[in-house]
Design brief:
Blueprint: H1 2-12, E1 17-19, H2 22-28, E2 42-45, H3 49-62, E3 66-69, E4 86-89, E5 96-100, E6 105-108, H4 114-123, H5 140-146, H6 153-156, E7 163-170, E8 175-178, H7 191-195, E9 203-211, E10 219-226, H8 229-242, E11 245-252, H9 253-261, E12 274-281, H10 285-300, E13 306-309, H11 313-324, H12 326-331, E14 336-341, H13 347-361, E15 366-372, E16 377-383, H14 390-410, H15 429-432, H16 435-448
Parallel strand pairs: 2-4, 3-4
Antiparallel strand pairs: 1-2, 5-6, 6-9, 7-8, 7-9, 10-12, 10-13, 11-12, 11-15, 14-16, 15-16
Helix pairs in contact: 1-3, 8-10, 13-14
Bound molecules: D-malate and zinc ion.
Zinc ion is lined by residues 372, 379, 418.
Amino acid sequence: MTDQRLERLRRLAPELRLLTDAADLEHYGRDWTRRWTPAPLAVALPASADEVQSIVRWANDEHVAVVPSGGRTGLSGGAVAANGELVLSMERMNRVVGFDAVDRTLTVQPGIVLEAVHNAAREHGLAYPVDFGARGSCSIGGNIATNAGGIRVIRYGNTRNWIAGLKVVTGSGEVLDLNRGLVKNASGYDLRHLLIGSEGTLGVVVEATLWLADPPPPTQVMLLALPSFEALMQVFAAFRARLELEAFEFFTDRALHHVLVHGAQRPFAEDYPYFVVAEFASGSEAREAAALAAFEFCVEQGLVLDGVISQSDAQAAQLWRLREGITESLARHKPYKNDVSVRVSAMPAFLAETQALIERGYPGVDVVWFGHIGDGNLHINVVPPEGMAQDVFVAQCEQVTDLLSAALARHGGSISAEHGIGLVKKPYLLDTRSEAEVALMRGIKRVLDPNGIMNPGKVFDA
Ligand code: MLT
Ligand code: ZN
């Protein structure tokens, strides 16, 4: 049965690269969540939009589910194939296909790695400013599918802000050429934005046109040690008022512990409970004086206990490593991840409530807090106690997440700030989105993907 379906696909697209070896199924069937056992039917590696369209049409005829796949660095299970799906890996479609100096756009295939997009923009004297730790592995198609955020959202916004045009193959096999790089386009519903963040449930991106920005100013990085959670938002306000912030990130002593174990260099001789990495425009006396003034103000107010400022790119990279190394340093423990957001103005009240909730929910457990505090986005990672079975651990964590999700609903927040709903956060979708909204989302899926073949079971059940 299986072979016949794949044989028919081979006849439809004779040049298509198809993998069925056990090692390939294992490799392409999972993402960074590592919670589900991969079990795809096969892996297709198309080289063109035509091949993608043939695959999607075949999948409709054969009723085979398709899991679009980029760098599989996702943390919500959005790219997991555990139920006989066809993995549609875009990794061979990884080229820059055009640059326009007047429009200041870069047109790329979806499988291009984010870092290659950064480099291509830099070669043209411009910048693609969306950035995060997985830059060396994640693909632009996956970034678009999750409306990825990261460390510079505070300054540049999410991926959505930078998408000038999208070519997609919808679940029904139609090719749409959306927005075509137009700055102004008041011609009805903007379907481009519907596809961005849809986690592969409506269609698959086959080409993207990205806006580029001016190259960033010279910057410096400060690492600050703070006495309390309460000080965080006050330091943020003080820094935002005085400096042109490019990033403002926080982490706790537990996060520092894990990155130090993982080989990072200890920043301060003393121990402190909370840390901030702030990057800001520098390169002039006025800017440097403003940075010093912001720091001194916070020290005088008792909001900052210690600090260090980068004097070179190498030092800046070293300080960033303390923040960017957290995910990798935790990965071997298979932590339970929360990626939540509230409005920045709601953060002080939400932080206080959440801290109490987490302390009650996880007595004596290693809970690692970090995140993009300037965006109202917290990552709360829970490390399983030694020897605890994964299913028991996840079940316990989900009880706490029920409470966290209810707290988010009270504060008008979201159960997924930037990782997506995927499989991991599906049980909590209705705390964040109303029943009417989810019903509309289902209706939209039925229109674009009438046979329900695009990443079924992700975001909501079929
Ligand atoms: C990060 O900001 O480092 C990742 O989005 C968070 C994570 O690993 O939970
Ligand atoms: Zn993050």
